[in-house]
Q: What sequence folds into this?
């Protein structure tokens, strides 16, 4: 089945630093990638997504580009804030179905 | 906005009890899912359902069952709770669509402690 690998955390940054979280996957066919964010004590929220190769998803200053050739969907933000402290999950929707496979999550802590 | 509501945020149950976790969505979504989230293990799929009265096993169904009698409600049942089922349980729903990339909408989660 599909699998998603993302960098382990925790990642600790200072405010206004650059954030990147790597995500790579193995899958058959043409899956669709997502990033979800989980703030403390809450469920997961959709952060951004992409539909086809070279699509760039963006939201709240975060960006990720779907690279089929490297099977990757790395998340980036140019200047993080304390409020970005959360756990970030990379996920992949299978090519022929409706299930999502999640990576292990990366905890990000932004210090003032 | 789609809303997915899980009936309890926190639950404490005793070993051997039968436990029901309820999930309701308000947007007529066909697909519903139950995951558990554990530190270091990420999200693991327990069961999912594509329609009323339909259910499919996920990756870790042992010790669980589900019920979907109405489209909006998907219940997770722990037949006889054990301490290794202490976890955060997340319900999600998703619409079925063609030509668009739909993701899940998650509930806020139920943190279950089995003592």
A:
């Amino acid at each position: 089945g599909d699998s998603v690998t993302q960098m382990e955390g925790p990642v600790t940054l200072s405010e206004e630093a650059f954030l990147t979280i790597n995500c790579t996957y193995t899958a058959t066919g043409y899956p669709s990638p997502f990033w979800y964010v989980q703030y403390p004590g809450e469920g997961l929220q959709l952060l951004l997504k992409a539909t086809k190769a070279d699509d760039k998803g963006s939201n709240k200053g975060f960006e990720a580009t779907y690279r089929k050739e490297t099977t990757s969907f790395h998340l980036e933000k140019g200047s993080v804030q304390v409020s970005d402290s959360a756990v970030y999950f990379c996920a992949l929707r299978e090519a022929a179905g409706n299930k999502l496979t999640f990576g292990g999550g990366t905890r990000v802590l932004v210090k003032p | 906005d789609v809303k997915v509501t899980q009936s309890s945020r926190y639950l404490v149950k005793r070993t051997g009890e039968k436990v029901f976790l309820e999930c309701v969505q308000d947007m007529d979504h066909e697909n519903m899912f139950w995951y558990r989230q554990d530190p270091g293990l990420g999200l693991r799929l327990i069961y999912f359902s594509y329609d009323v009265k339909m259910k499919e096993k996920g990756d870790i169904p042992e010790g669980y069952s589900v019920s979907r009698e109405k489209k909006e409600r998907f219940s997770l049942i722990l037949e006889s709770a054990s301490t290794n089922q202490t976890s955060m349980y997340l319900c999600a729903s998703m619409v079925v669509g063609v030509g668009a990339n739909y993701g899940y909408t998650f509930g806020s989660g139920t943190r279950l402690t089995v003592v």
